[in-house]
Amino acid sequence: MLSVEAQKPPKGKWTTPPFDPRFPNQNQTRNCYQNFLDYHRCVKAMNRRGKSTQPCEYYFRVYHSLCPISWVQRWNQQIQDGTFAGKI
Amino acid sequence: MAYPYQLGFQDATSPIMEELLHFHDHTLMIVFLISTLVLYLISLMLTTKLTHTSTMDAQEVETIWTILPAIILIMIALPSLRILYMMDEVNNPALTVKTMGHQWYWSYEYTDYEELNFDSYMTPTTDLKPGELRLLEVDNRVVLPMEMPVRMLISSEDVLHSWAVPSLGLKTDAIPGRLNQAILTSSRPGLFYGQCSEICGSNHSFMPIVIEMVPLKTFENWCSSML
């Protein structure tokens, strides 16, 4: 039960965002924001090419895990209103 | 948790806190030894009739009391740096939990799978059950699985707060607009208490943190029951 293999998550199942070497320090604000942007950019690009947005799900899972719910709600509201400051 | 007439740190719950505890013992011992030596020398100076008014140089003793402090400082610095680097090791957390500071309560979000979030208010003193701790108990505790690295992301919805749990060696500021990461690993199950550590208004002293570390199965059952 305590072997290394048994403690690894089952292959392919989502647990939690892995360590991202682009954001190695205490301040993870950019990690959350970058993945939020990347998700929306990915969806926009895939839709433009008529492809499935399934690969974009990774970015969704990461920002959903990392970003506070209130931030996500605020940004989604801004996107709807057309006032979101990021480039998507 | 803290207990009356406590002199030292609370019992360590995480491996890092154990290291910090031992380092503190080591350094404090050095400090006591130096202070005792100095006080002894001062008392000797004040209680002797011997004098020596023609001292010109003292090369040998000057060398010793330069080299010896340097060695002592190295003996303090090396363990300190070792722990510092240990705290920054890359580890892959098994779970991510967000905590947002508000005036005057904490809210917790577990969004790896479903969206589970709840507020954690202090239990008023008038509502305490017998045996509960005054100003430390909350209505909804943060339940976490033990013996697994957990990523805590700490932020605030209004003013500065600070999320602190002494027995885990954690204190991380909650800053609005910023997401601060702290990694938490508990070696044992139990209840671990902390208090808000950044002045945030009238009820700053009344927004405690209680972590309940449980085995993984219990944690999974708790998650299902909270959803």
Automatic annotation (TrEMBL), chain A:
Subcellular location: Mitochondrion inner membrane
One GO term describing the cellular component: mitochondrial inner membrane
Region annotation Disordered: where it falls in the sequence: 1-26
The keyword Plastid is assigned to this record: no
Paired cysteines (S-S): C32-C67, C42-C56
Pathway: Energy metabolism; oxidative phosphorylation
CDD domains, alphabetized: Cyt_c_Oxidase_VIb
InterPro entries (alphabetical): COX6B-like, CX6/COA6-like_sf, Cyt_c_oxidase_su6B
Keywords: Disulfide bond, Membrane, Mitochondrion, Mitochondrion inner membrane
Pfam families on file: COX6B
Xref: Gene3D superfamilies: Cytochrome c oxidase, subunit VIb
The UniProt record lists the keyword Disulfide bond: yes
Membrane topology: Peripheral membrane protein
Domain of life of the source: Eukaryota
Quaternary structure note: Component of the cytochrome c oxidase (complex IV, CIV), a multisubunit enzyme composed of 14 subunits. The complex is composed of a catalytic core of 3 subunits MT-CO1, MT-CO2 and MT-CO3, encoded in the mitochondrial DNA, and 11 supernumerary subunits COX4I, COX5A, COX5B, COX6A, COX6B, COX6C, COX7A, COX7B, COX7C, COX8 and NDUFA4, which are encoded in the nuclear genome.
Function per UniProt: Component of the cytochrome c oxidase, the last enzyme in the mitochondrial electron transport chain which drives oxidative phosphorylation.
PANTHER family: CYTOCHROME C OXIDASE SUBUNIT 6B (PTHR11387)
Family: Belongs to the cytochrome c oxidase subunit 6B family.
Protein name: Cytochrome c oxidase subunit
Species annotation: Octodon degus
UniProtKB/TrEMBL annotation, chain B:
Main localisation: mitochondrion
Keyword terms of this UniProt record: Copper, Electron transport, Magnesium, Membrane, Metal-binding, Mitochondrion, Mitochondrion inner membrane, Respiratory chain, Translocase, Transmembrane, Transmembrane helix, Transport
Membrane-spanning segments: 27-46, 66-85
Key word Cytoplasm present: no
Highest taxon of source: Eukaryota
Domain Cytochrome oxidase subunit II transmembrane region profile: 1-91
NCBIfam families the record matches: CoxB
Protein name: Cytochrome c oxidase subunit 2
Species of origin: Octodon degus
